[in-house]
Specification:
By secondary structure, the protein is an alpha+beta fold. 16% of the residues lie in helices and 42% in strands. The protein has one helix at 12-32, and strands at residues 51-55, 62-64, 69-73, 79-88, 91-98, 101-112, 116-121, 124-130. Strands 1-2-3-4-5-6-7-8 form an eight-stranded antiparallel beta barrel. The longest helix has 21 residues, at 12-32.
Length: 132
């Protein structure tokens, strides 16, 4: 029985061919991972949004609380607007009272991480940066 040639004794073209196949396999796996739900990131939950945020559209911070309430508060603590919110199916649903009317906005979450999230609002993207 003949011994197999060592790696160093194999022709360069064979080593390159094996390396290219491995590289192609890794590339294919990275392309298929998002389709199978294996993105490597934890999916956002309502807890991802709880905190004090600065909106790119407002001068005053927005406070999102874990009990589902939200407030826009001035530095002196006075509340300008408030309501309830929830994160569901990749969207933030805002409910609020304005005068005698109850309003509702549903915004698609474009991205979220520990320091900011982005919402699709009114044909534009609004960025919220964490303040706490």
């Amino acid at each position: 029985m003949a011994a197999l040639p060592s790696r160093a004794a194999r022709p360069l073209s064979t080593r390159v061919s094996v390396a290219l196949r491995l590289l192609a396999l890794v590339a294919l796996m990275s392309l298929l991972a998002p389709l199978t739900g294996c993105s490597g990131r934890k999916a956002p939950t309502a807890a991802s949004f709880v905190g004090k945020w600065q909106s790119s559209k407002l001068d005053t911070p927005v406070h999102l609380y874990s009990n589902g309430e939200w407030e826009i508060k001035k530095d002196d603590g006075s509340v300008l607007q408030y309501g309830v919110w929830e994160y569901k199916d990749g969207r933030i649903i805002w409910n609020y009272k304005m005068g005698s009317q109850i309003g509702r906005d549903v915004n698609i979450v474009q991205s979220v991480n520990a320091t900011e999230f982005r919402l699709h609002e009114d044909q534009a993207i609004t960025t919220f940066k964490r303040l706490d």
